[in-house]
Amino acid sequence: MCNGKKSRLNKIEHNLKILGLYQFVSGIVGILLCTYFFGSIPFQLLISIGIYGFCAYCGFLLLKKKYDNGLNLSIINQSLQIISFGVFGFAIKYTSGFYAGFGIDLTDDLITRFDFGINTWRLYLNADPDLVFLYVNIIPIFILGFIYRSKTRLELNNKSISEIGKSE
Question: pTM for the complete prediction?
Answer without folding.
Answer: 0.87
